[in-house]
């Protein structure tokens, strides 16, 4: 299964969702790869730590070699082992910003799909983290994925952006990837005692949008896990938010 977590609004928890769900899959014996397409490298630092030393083993180097007419580079050569069993990552790179125009001008929009398909021969699950923009790399991820998860952080701006985002996903499905589907909306940083989040989420449900259960609560434990470079299933598996992530993973695997 190839899943992409996408929202063009920043700060909605894409990297947190990607890394925690991927870590749960790996902790349960699945072989899992994370692909970090965001030059900010949040998923990479979450899984490898802030002291991660960027070298030539990253997604930028992979794309560089696709432009250099060196055949078809094997994406497995750019994957890095994380400290967590059965969990690997294709790290992000600062090169991505400079590479975007070159890749787009050379019509390399399907190269990521080829890479994900090749990786899926080695692992059971792939989770793709995207930049907070509808750019070349995000389109590449949507073209290459089977399912799309959309984080939603319970404010009115996010709700307005959600409708356009759903249209963008549908356009990619119609034009490039008929197998792509929106697997669900992941409600993040949910505050159940506040009226606005309750109202916004209920309106999405009433409109027929696929809001997933459980919703992810707001908690400082998430920031602590970022700082420790440990997904919640490894840092504090019995914490309320860790349990919610595990239940969300169960929901997704039941739907697959």
Q: Mind explaining what this structure looks like?
A:
- The chain is α/β, with parallel strands linked by helices and about 260 residues long.
- Helix content is about 45%, strand content about 15%.
- The protein has 11 helices and 7 strands.
- The chain has a 7-stranded mixed sheet with strand order 3-4-2-5-1-6-7, with helices on both faces.
- Helix 1 packs parallel to helix 2, helix 1 packs across helix 11 and helix 3 packs parallel to helix 4.
- The radius of gyration is 17 Å and the shape is globular.
- The termini are close together.
- The model has no long low-confidence stretch (mean pLDDT about 95).
Short account of what is shown:
By secondary structure, the chain is α/β, with parallel strands linked by helices. The protein contains eleven helices and seven strands. Strands 3-4-2-5-1-6-7 form a seven-stranded mixed beta sheet, sandwiched between helices.
Secondary structure: elements and pairs:
Elements: E1 2-5, H1 14-27, E2 32-36, H2 42-48, H3 59-67, E3 80-81, E4 87-90, H4 95-105, H5 111-119, E5 125-129, H6 136-144, E6 147-152, H7 156-175, E7 181-187, H8 195-206, H9 220-228, H10 232-235, H11 240-255
Parallel strand pairs: 1-5, 1-6, 2-4, 2-5, 6-7
Antiparallel strand pairs: 3-4
Helix pairs in contact: 1-2, 1-11, 3-4, 5-6
SS strand fraction: 5-15%
Spatial order of strands in the largest sheet: 3-4-2-5-1-6-7
Q: What shape does the CA trace take?
A: globular
The total count of helices amounts to: 11
List low-confidence stretches. none
Query: Cα-atom Rg, whole angstroms?
Result: 17 Å
Order of helices and strands: EHEHHEEHHEHEHEHHHH
Which structural category do the helix and sheet elements fall into?
Answer: alpha/beta
End-to-end distance, in Å? 8 Å
